[in-house]
Each structure stands twice: as C-alpha cells, then as structure tokens.
Amino acid sequence: MSTQFQSLQKTKEKPLIEGNPTFAWITDKISKIVEANKAPKYWLPALGFFSSLLLILGGSIGYLLWEGVGIWGVQVPNAWGWAIINFVFWVGIGHAGTLISAILFLFRQKWRTSINRSAEAMTLFAVMCALVFPAIHVGRVWVVYWMFPLPNQMEMWPNFRSPLLWDVFAVNVYFLVSLLFWYVGLIPDLATLRDRTTSKIKQVIYGVFALGWRGGNRQWKHYELAYLLLAGVATPLVLSVHSVVSFDFAVSQVPGWHTTIFPPYFVAGAIFSGFAMVLTLMILVRKIYNLESIITMAHLDKITKVLLATGLMVGYAYTIEFFTAWYSGNDYESFIFKARAAGPYAWAYWIMFSCNVFVPQIFWFKSMRKSIPVMFVASILINVGMWFERFVIVITSLAQDYLPSSWGYFKPTIWDVLTFVGTFGLFFTMFLLFLRFVPMVAMSEVKGVLPQADPHHHEDGHHE
Amino acid sequence: MMSMENKTQSNDLYWRSLEQKEGEKSSMDFLHREFPEGASELSSPVSRRTFVQLMGASAGLAGMVACRMPKEKIVPYVKSPEHLVPGKPKYYATAMTLGTQSYGLLVESNNGRPTKIEGNPKHPSSLGATNSFAQASILSLYDPSRSKQPKKDQVEQTWETFASEWETLCAQAKKNQGAKIAILSQTYASPSLDHHRDVFLAAYPKASWVFFDGGEQSNESAALTHRSGGSLRTYLNLSKAQVVLSLESDFLGKDVDSVRHTKEFSKNRKIESTKDSMNRLYVVEQSYSLTGANADHRLPVPSSHIYDVLVTVAQQLNRLGASVASLPKAKANKTEYQQSWISECAADLWAHRGQSLITVGKHQPKEVHALAAAINMSLGNQNKTVFYYKTLGHESSVMDLHALSEKLQAGQIDTLVILGGNPVFEAPTRLNLASLISTIANTIHFSHQCNETTKVCHWHLPQSHELESWGDVTNVDGTRSLIQPLIQPLFQTKSRLEMWALLSSNQLRSGYDLLTAFANQHGPSQNFWRKSLIEGVYNTGILPPMTPEVAGFPKVEPMEGIVVRFEHSSATFDGRFAENTWLQEAPDPMTKVSWENPALISPTMAKDLGVKNGQWISLETDHGQIEIPVWIMPGHARNSITVHLGYGREVANQNTKGVGFNVFPLRSLTSMNLTQVKNIKALSKVTTIASTQNHGSMEGRPLVRENTLEEFRKHPEFAKEAVEHPPLKSLWKEHAYEDGYQWGMSIDLTSCTGCNACTVACQSENNIPVVGKEQVINGREMNWIRIDRYFNGPEEDPMVVHQPVACVHCENAPCEQVCPVNATVHDDEGLNTMVYNRCIGTRYCSNNCPYKVRRFNFFNYTKDTPELMKMANNPDVTIRFRGVMEKCTYCVQRIAGAKQTAKIEDRKVVDGEITTACQQVCPADAIVFGDLSDPNSRVSKRKKLEQDYEMLAELNIKPRTSYLAQLRNPNPKMPSAGGQA
After folding, report:
1. Could you say which residues from 669 to 728 on chain B have a Cβ atom under 8 Å away from some Cβ of chain A?
2. What is the Cα–Cα distance from B759 to B804, expressed in whole angstroms?
3. Are A403 and B850 an interchain contact pair (Cβ–Cβ within 8 Å)?
4. Is the pLDDT of residue B844 over 70?
5. Are the CB atoms for A260 and A250 separated by under 8 Å?
C-alpha cells in the first residue's frame, strides 16, 4: 500500500477516539467510574425511581398470578394483547447490542468498540424484560415449564410444529449466547479492575470473574479466537431470533400475520428500534459520564445513518404489505390492510407510520445528525413508533379476522399499562447497576483501536 | 366478642391474687395473656413480628396442604334401589308449565339429582325438543337464593303454623261464605289444581279468584267465542300450511308453543333435492322477530298498523273472490311498495286456499284476531291449517285484577292469597297494588323466590320447583301429562298441588297422595297410571275442533305518533326467568344483547332522535316515565319502540338484582301490550350495552351462503361454487383413518331459526360457566355454541340470517398446529380434542382459529359457584380451571357413553344413537351428528346434498361440521324493495 494512499486515508478519516489519549488515560477514565466512591448525582435518584417502577412490575405480576390473565384487556378475538406486544418490543430492542458487537466485529467496524459494551448490556436487559412476558402471559404460569422438552414419565413432549416453541428456543439461546459474548468481552477489563482495586473484597470478586486473566500473549491469542468464534455464533442468532419471533405471526393463518415478508421485516424493525434505544442511552451516558471523547459525534452520526437505512426498510415493508395484500387476491388479507390504515385502529397505524417512516427522514440532513436534542427526540419517537408497530400487528389482525361476528375492539386495562411501565423499571434498574459496577466501555478494545496500539503498523500493512 | 371484653374490664371487683389486686404490671400482663407468648399479637391487627411469623409459617406449610385428604362421606345404600347403577343416569318423564302452556320433558337424573332436561318425544308440544326456558329451568332448581322456609313478617315459621293460622282464617271466612277472601293466581291449565279450586270455591262461593300474569295479555279468547259460550283459542297446524302470513305472531320465537311450531314449520323447509318444494312465510311486524328472520318476505310496520294491514289483505282477498263480510275501510296512506306487497301476499294466500294460514300475535287487539279468523275460514283453512279449540285453563285478566284492586281499596277484602308471580312489580302502576296490599290484614304470598310482592305481604310461603313436585297439566290440544318429581324438595317448600289442597281443605297432604287420589277419580286409571308416568302423557281424548263466532269488524283508527310495544323477552319471558343467569347471559337471538333490555328503535328513528347505541332516552307515556338506553335495530319499524318486559328487578338474587330496566311503569290497564308515547327525549348519558356480536354485516364474505329455491333449482352447486381457490395442499401429513368411527356434523341453515335453545342446552350439558355482564362486554362469554346473526340489505328493511357456530373439528386443525404443548390434538375418530390438564393457556390456538370458537377461562369462573348450584353440573364433564382453553367437544361424553354401551352389547354404535346436546334440543332438527365413515348415516347423506358447503374451506382446514346453505322461497311477483338478494 503506497504511503500516498495512506496519507490520503489519514486526511479523510478522523480518529475513532478524540483527543489522542494514552492507554493509561483510558484505563483511568473508565475504571474511575466504577471505582469512584460516589456516583454522579443523578444516579441514585434515578435508581430510586426505576427500582420503584420495578416494584410496580413485581406488584402487577403478583396480582396477575393471583387473579389470572383476565386482569388484562385480552379477550376473544384478541387473545393476545400487550404482553405479546411488549415481548416483541423488548426483543426488538435487544437486537442492537449483539449486532454491534458481533456483526460489526466481523465486518471490522472498529468504531463499535466505544459502544459495544453498553449496547450489549442493553441487549441483555432488554431480553430479560422480554422474557418476563412469555412466562407470565400464559393462563397457568405454574406449568409454563412444559414448554421445554423435559423428559418425563408420561413421555409428553412439546409440539415441535408450534412457532411458540421455536420462539422459546430462539430467545433463550439468544440470551445465553449474548450473555456469554458479553462476559467474554468483559474478562480483560475485569482483570484490570482487579489489579487496580485496593479493596480486598473487590479484588476477590473481580478476581473470580476475571478467571485468572494475566494478559499474557497466549491468553490474548486464545481470547481473541474465542471472541471471534462467539461473534460467528452470535451473528446468525441476531438474524434468527427475530425471524423466529416473526414466525409466531407468519406461521399462523390470521389475515395480516400470514405473510412471508415478516422475517426480514421484523429483523429490520428490530435493528431499527435497537439502534434507537442505543442512541437514547448513549446520548445520556456520554453526557453524564463526560465520555464525549470516547463516544464521539461520529459514533452518533453512524447510528443515525443506521436508523435512516433501517427506517427505510421498515417503510418499504409497510408499503409492500399493501401491494401483496392486493396482489394476493385474498379478500381477508386486503380487508385487514384497509382496516389498518382506515379502520378503527387507524390512529395507531398512523402513529406507527409517522414515527417510523417520516421521523428518520430528517437524518438525510447533516445538521440534524449533529444536533443532540433532535437525535434524542427522534430516537424516542422511533421507539414509540416501534411499539405501535407491534400493537398494529398484534391487535388489528386479531380484532377483525375471518368471521365478522367475532370482531371486537381491544381495550387495555390499568394492569396492562403498569406491567409495561414496570418493565422499564427492570430495564433501567439493571442498566444503572451496570453503569455503576461494570466498566461501561470496553477498555481493552478501545485501546486496540488507538493509533499507538499498532506499533508494527508498517510491517503488518503488507499482509492486510 | 365486644361484650366479653367489656365484662373483663368492668370485672375489677374480684381479684385472683394479691399481685393483681395491687396492680402489678407483670401479673396484669399475665391476666391479659392467657397464652403469654404471642396471644395478643394474634388478635391485634398487624404486628410486624406476627406478620413475619405468619408469612413464614404459611409459606412453610403451603406444601402441607397436600398431606391431608379432604373429608368426604361416601355412604353406600343400605338397600339399593332397583335398577340404579351408580354413575349411570336415569331418565324420567315429567312436564313443565309456562302459564297455560306445557312442555313434556325427559329429565336426566344422576344418582338422584336431575342434571339435564330433554324434550319428551311423545308430548305434542315438545316432540322431543325443548326451548331455552325448559333447558335453563334446571338452574332455577338449584338457585341458592330460592325461598327455603315459610316466613311471617320476616320471621321463620313452619308450614304447620301457617296451616293452623289458615284454619282460623277459614273458620272466620266460612261465616260470610268467603266474601272477604281473594286469591290472585298465576295462570295454569291443570285438572288437579282446578279440582281443588272447585272445592275451594264450593266452600267459599263468594270468594274471588283472579288470574293475572304480568306479560303480554292475550286478546284472543275475547275475540273468538263459541256459540255454546266459552272462548276458543287457535291451534296452528303448520305442517299443512304452504303459505303463511304472520301478523306480528312470533310463532317460531317467543310464542309459548314455538317448539311444536318450529318442528312443523321446518319439516316443510327441508330441501333434499332440486325437486323438493318449500312453504312460504310472509311476516308483518314492528320489531324484528325470529319469525321475521325466517320469513321469505317481511314488512316492517308499527304494531298499531297491523289491523290496517289485515283489513287491506281482506279487501284484496274479497277482490279475488273471497267473502269476508262487513269490512271497515282501510286507511289509504300506504306506500306503493306496501300496497303491492300486501296485494301480492293476498294473491298468494288466495292461490293456496286450504293450505294457507294467517296467524296473529296474541297481544294484538281482538279485532285483529276476529278478522284473521274470518279470513282463515273464508280461505278454507279452518280444520286444515288452523284449528279452534275450547280454551283450557285460565287466562290472565288485567280487568279482573283491576276489580280486585277496587275491592281492596274499598276494604272488602281482609285475606289476600297471592299464588305465584310478582303482581306488585308487574301490575300497572296506577293500580297502586303495593300500598293496597300492605293495608290488608292477612296477606299470603306463595312463590319460588322473594320478590317485590313478598316484601308487602305478611306470609311468605316457599314454592317447590316443578322438578320437586307432583302434578298434572293439560296441553292446548287436550293431551294431559303428569308432572313427577325428580328429587325430594331441597327446602321446606310445597308444590302447587299441595298448596291448592291446603287452601281448599286445610290439609297438609303429600303431593303424591293428592295426585293419586285425584287420578283415581278423574285421571288415568290405576293400571294406566304407571304407563302414563313412564310415558309422561295420557290422553283423555283430543279436543274436538270448533268454529268461532266472529262478529263484525269495527273501524279502528291506528294510533298516531310513536308507539311503544311491550314484548316478552327471550331471556326472562315475562320476568319469571329474570333470576336465571343462563338465560340472562344467552344473547337475544335478534339483538345479540345479553343481561339487558335496551329499547329497540329503527336506524331512521335513531337519526331523528340523534342517539347512538347505548345512549339513554327519556320515554314518557300517559301512565309513567322511564329512562332507558336505546339499541338500534335494523329492520325495526319506524315511529315505534319495542321494550322487553321482566327486567329491572329491585328484589332479586345478587346476580340479577338491578339487571336491565323496568318498563312496567309505562303500562296501564288499557295498554298492556301497546301504548302511545307522549314524550321522547334523548339524554346525554351513554352506557355500554353488553352485546356478544358487535358487527352485523358479513362484509360480502361467503360465510352464510344463501339463495332462493328457484335459483337453487337452476344452479344446485351455488353454495360450493361460492368460493374460488387454488388447489389445496397440506403442509403436514394428514391423518390416515383406517377403520373406526368418523364423527361429523351437518347444520341446516334453512331449518335453523336461530332460537338459542342449543346455546343453553350446551351450557347445561357441558357445565359452561356464566361470566356476567362485565365479562360479556369484555368479549369473554363462554358459550361453546353461539349463533351468529348477520344483516343483509338496506338498514331499514334488511334480511337476517342466523348461523350456529361451534368448533367444527377441522381435519387440519390450525389450533393443533400452534399449541406448543400439544394440549389440543386429534383423536383417531377425527375429534379435535382439548386436553385441559395439559393446557398452559398460551391462547395461541384461539388466535389461529378462524372461527373464533375457542373460549378461555380468563378467571377462575367456578370459584364462587355455590355448593347447591354445583348439583346442576353434569358429572360426565370436567369443570375447567382458570387459565385453560375450552371449546365444543361434539359432546364427547355422550360419544364415549354410546361406545361403551355398544361395546358391552358387542355391536357398532347405531346411527342416531348419539345425539349431541345441541342436536337433541333443536326444535328445527337443523343439526345432525353421526358417523361419516358410514355412507348411510344421516349425516353422510346430508353432506351429499347439493347445497352442502364448508365454511372457510379455502383455508384447507377441512372442517367436519358443514352447513346446508340457507334457501328461501320468495314470491317472484313481490316488489323488490326488501333486502332479498
């Protein structure tokens, strides 16, 4: 590679981390957040608020278990309601983390290092929120384990033709692999914390979780191979989990659900909502923890571009659905799409459409991609829109299916709302604890993308 | 508790020890605490220690519950009754009365408790089927709010006390020949009751005995009199009628004899080939009735205009050659459409002389009855399609009630006995019955339940349910049946017969003794008795048909302005079933409203008033004013309102108290059936009405496939060709059935009237819980078979179709595929079974069911079922717990029962041996169930008919229940403004 070209590249590409910091500065900067005796002043009130919401979740679930799912608005024909909407919503949010860490890792997108740790944490917490719902939405929670293929004396097995069962496997596998991937990424940083701390207790705890990491060459070699392999395992899961979630709908024969476009449409929507959530969180985190030099405007810019791209994809899906409904010649199918846009739930449909298709269009403009308030509001609107997308899919199709005699109008109850709000309590409580006790930026990886991390750059250049 | 504590506090004079006397704290503590540790914590509401302890203990001991066996006494018979096999039900014939109407029943008894009611095929008014009232009456038997004991002024008494008090009263009454005794009774037609009534009236010749039922008042007997005196009533023979004109006669619906009518009428609507013919039904009515829904032509006119329509019919017939004498002039302001509708209808009637029939709603004024009789006679229908029989039993008379109230007012009565019913609630408010009754010295109310009338009477005497009673009853045609008890009275109640005997002869004799004594003289002879009891009917000769005297027909000006019609309710009848929750929950077949009786108005009238569904109006007549929400009913006549009687009770059991709206205050002596509206005003209040079907249009979907007979003859395949779809291929390997039974069902939409009997029968057979109004509004009703009702055509004059929908047992069942735990699976006889034990309640099956026939236990609906009501449960059917999906099983318990019998007898199940509950109750024989693998079974033959189709077959789900398309037989000459496609 000619030096001329290299210099050309240098002029073009801004450094991923601003201010050309040293390794030590980075270690210090990130570790001190965890090591500090006092959290930033917003931390404790925020934890108090969100853990109260978490209590609401607990209370709502308690009442649900006591009384039955009748406390929700579910009925016939809408046998699924907010629980499933929220499940899909949270699983969708749980998409960005693993996408950022695994797929972008495989694609050598080095900018991911600044945000992958917290995005992955977000994924885990979102999937935890999601997993609450399939467990509690069933009528008899105490036998929900029958969903798993557990050997038993009656030789009763789950029904492997049911998409709901595939879902159980898909989401659980996704959660486990994401957790593993996140944890493996954490090991060098945990070792750093272990080495820095002066407290005996912390030393033991970090020591146990650091799994005896010494930072030796052999360890790095194995570690990086393992990380690569895990990224390889996680990558198909990113695509599969939401495809399988979409099968819950696509494999059934309800008009408006039974469409082949669902898997890619759901995956695009999931990435869309996941990145929107990452954007919301990163804007807050970089500000509160003064990480503007590590999570730079360039990062935010890239996230908004992903939002724009995936927003266009879901917009395409929304539009093409009308075409397929019409082209299929299936009256039930065309009816439901007309009903979505102009029927009793048109309000929900247009909230969805505006938030998901119109809002991201502002990111065509560079000025918008530079404005923190605009990005913040847009990211929240997108997630509102994505919740309504699931609302439109789950509710409208069931409300008006084959026999008009059974048509109904779904009305949520206070318990639907409280349970949903409660999951935000779970999500943010977990996230706040993560910020306090775990290094929120992957120190070792960030150091790896600094220019000085490449002492043999010229020698290696030939092999690239 | 309180008084005890006070005692110990004031007890300071006595002391137990010196320490106590000196008031040492520790001893006071000791005194306070009989158990020093923890005792006061237990009684004090919340202490942290106790709370934690109890929580810990309850969590720890929660697992111990399973360690203790529930205590249940199972005591074998010391002497086992003959033929009684535990677990095997027995069937007994009995009868049920509804006013002067009776239904012959076969009641299933499981180990001594009646659980299910079927029709007695030998009884002329049942013919093997029943209606929803008969089905639901089993629930009334086990209603825990039934009166349990005689009471005087709220104090519990015994029957003996009452008998002795009655003896004293009688002794006094003897002096003036009973002039101060009045009896107010519900109507009945029973020879044994009449016998005791005669005895009573012989002893007290001056006593007055008044009959009053609160519902629609029949004007028939006033119009149809016999030369020899006495009144007559009509008896329709629909099996002979080819052309029927119904003038607000809901003979297929709310008419008490609708079971027989439906049996006969539907026989003439069974189309098995293109060569078959069909009868034709014209209906003129105000409110859309079931009869109207089954009509080939329907003309909505206000109830007050019926006479005018009939006069026009008569004029047309006279023009064609009939001779209906002395007709008044019809009012001319009919639209051209109405005019030609009537003349074509008249022409059709004339063309079918001797095979036609005009039937009139009993509530219509007597002029209408008289004119209809004259026309029927002139058409030569008498003794062919319509018979006139001597009126048996006693008819309700509001004028007699009025006379009685005047006597009460004048203080001429000191003893009033009210036998059944709730006259205080139902009588016209002007009579002021409540306050009049409370001034009477001796008032006695005999009824099943405490109601508004009980409140104003001194004595309350509990009445036995008919399933606990001995008795007899005469049917309209003269057939008699015996009422035999299925169970000992559950409480200290007396049957009607026992009560009548007590009144007439001061004797507390058992019903059995009374009935056998009566039967020995007047009833079936000794040898005949047993046979009559087993068969349920005995004849003392069918009545001879008579000819009514028909006087002239006065000119009657139709009421101007808006009229309000008081109609029986499909749920409460005239109010007597108001406390029956099965009936309350069963949606009205036409409005699909349950638990309520909103005022029905036409869409145009709603527009004029500016009201929407559920919006309240204030309705004022000359006699009273009420506020009531409206329900917009397409096809309802303009300028008229229909309200249903029997709702809005203030004194009722806890489930039905305050349900619906009391419309009785609008009525007066002269306007018991119909009255003019003085003032109507829309209010701003809007409430949600509980309706099980919110969308009335089929949206052009081929769900109910309908055609005319004529078109069917030209295109017999129309129903199958209604849907085009690509060739169907299954994703899965389909079930291969080698041998054994293949269950299937066929429902004939042409026969089905939509009467709801199947819904209630299914509820009784399959232990389906009642969920209440709130849950119905939430869309959580549990009925396994529902009847979908769709409108077709213009809002003001649409046609209506009904379609019973239960689980259709798809061969490629979409529910089975999506259940993650295999809780709904196919069995090797083709049933789509539901394994309650395995179900975890994901509700995915319900979502994927295109028919939405699956029902979910959102709550533990049976948690609060009273012990007594549990006795109504079918022991062969599991009670479903919270969180479990349920649905129609094709009455799998009946299938299993028949298969067991067949196996014991080493044979195959014979076609017709298994009837599902819905099939058995159906008066139209619309439902046929059987083995599809047998090409000669009735169901297989039905499915081979040309008009057979499978709803949503294009989804390749292969439903096992198929439908026979609805065929109508419209008159081709009729003007086409109606909804006929």
Report:
1. 693-701, 703
2. 9
3. yes
4. yes
5. yes
